[in-house]
Amino acid sequence: MTTPRIIVDSLVTQLAAREYVLRLLSLSTSDPASQRFARVFDAGFQELACAAASHLAKDLAARPTELASGEEPPEALDLSAIVEALHEPRERLVEDHTRVFSLVVSKECPPYEVEYCPQTFSVYRSQRMADIAGFYHAFGVEPGRDVPERVDHIACELEFLAWLVAKERHARTREGESWAEYAQVCRDAQRDFLSGHVAWWVPAFARALRARAHSLDPAPSLPMAVASALASLVPAERFVLGVEPPDELARPSTAEDLGQGSCESRCSKGVF
User: Fold this and answer.
1) Measured over all CA atoms, what is the biggest interatomic distance in the chain, rounded to whole angstroms?
2) Which end of the chain has fewer CB atoms at under 10 Å, N or C?
3) pLDDT digits over 24-41, tens only?
4) CATH code of 232's domain
5) How many Å apart are CA 126 and CA 10, to the nearest integer?
6) Which of 3, 18, 6, 98 lies closest to 57, judged by CA?
7) What crossing angle do the helices spanning 5-28 and 154-172 adopt, rounded to 10°?
């Protein structure tokens, strides 16, 4: 039994939209001083990403019936504020990034998954890091060299999710049983990674990021715009992939704050 072409085309369009949105948000959450951040300034890419966000905002197949704490309606997804913020001089973007996140791991809005884990034991956190790295390795993703980051950084996780989406989109446009099977493998990996390593903490990060930006004078525009977009994207991703909402909103609880010592020195690092 073959899948009707109209359904395939609709799914491929949705995959392309998700990929562009995820990639722009991955770049936007990177350090503005890094080489990879420069990719976000491409006007053609910005235009496609904004159109992709508009498509997802109108896509009824990306609207969950229930929002978790910290999430915002997917129909509010809009990347135009991010694009507008990117008109700021790059020096200003770098300065704002430092003001928000500081030069060490931020206590107010850490952009690292394991800093939201309720368990602060270094072994537990190292296991979480190893699981993330295992996902990357399974799909042949290698760490980048410019401004190395921990594998649980928000930019790394979003980029990996975009990579899986791109792989599925490519497979969906090919004929044959083997391509269909690979598309399903990519789909299952997206679901597992979103459930285990994105959906449960990113809304909390978005809320903390917005609060941190609000506390500064003047409030930096890029972090504010990124926070809003992340809060709307996560529930859309959840619904598309069939991931249940988390039971409660996570919160930052760094090991350093609780006297357990930072796990950063014991964990793998790397960006895509």
Assistant:
1) 60
2) N
3) 999 999 999 999 999 999
4) 1.10.3480.10
5) 40
6) 18
7) 160
